[in-house]
Design a protein that fits this description.
single chain; about 100 residues; alpha+beta; four-stranded antiparallel beta sheet; globular
């Protein structure tokens, strides 16, 4: 299993537009083969910061997601909404307690 997080700083004027676009992207992503979960969160202390938590069956499923039309459309749309570059991290699940 692969866990991916992406922290995205959003300009204050675009928070609502970003939220709508992210919801659409999440709904489409959850239907992708190999997606286990896709959650979008808004920072409770900084309302302009969002983070996604994604669970994928494997790296190939996540790689296919990165090439999906809806993700490319989402990235193109939010480019002007962002207040800085997103920070992505990928984690391999090594075990459960």
């Amino acid at each position: 299993m692969l866990i991916v997080s992406a922290v995205m700083p959003v300009k204050p004027a675009f928070v609502e537009a970003f939220s709508i676009a992210a919801k659409v992207c999440a709904e489409q992503t959850r239907r992708e083969a190999g997606n286990i979960s896709y959650t979008i969160c808004r920072n409770s202390e900084d309302s302009c910061q969002f983070i996604t938590f994604e669970e994928w069956e494997n790296a190939d499923a996540e790689a296919a997601h990165m090439q999906s039309t809806h993700l490319k459309n989402f990235i193109g749309e939010i480019r002007t909404y962002l207040g800085g570059a997103p920070t992505m991290r990928r984690y391999k699940v090594t075990g459960n307690p």
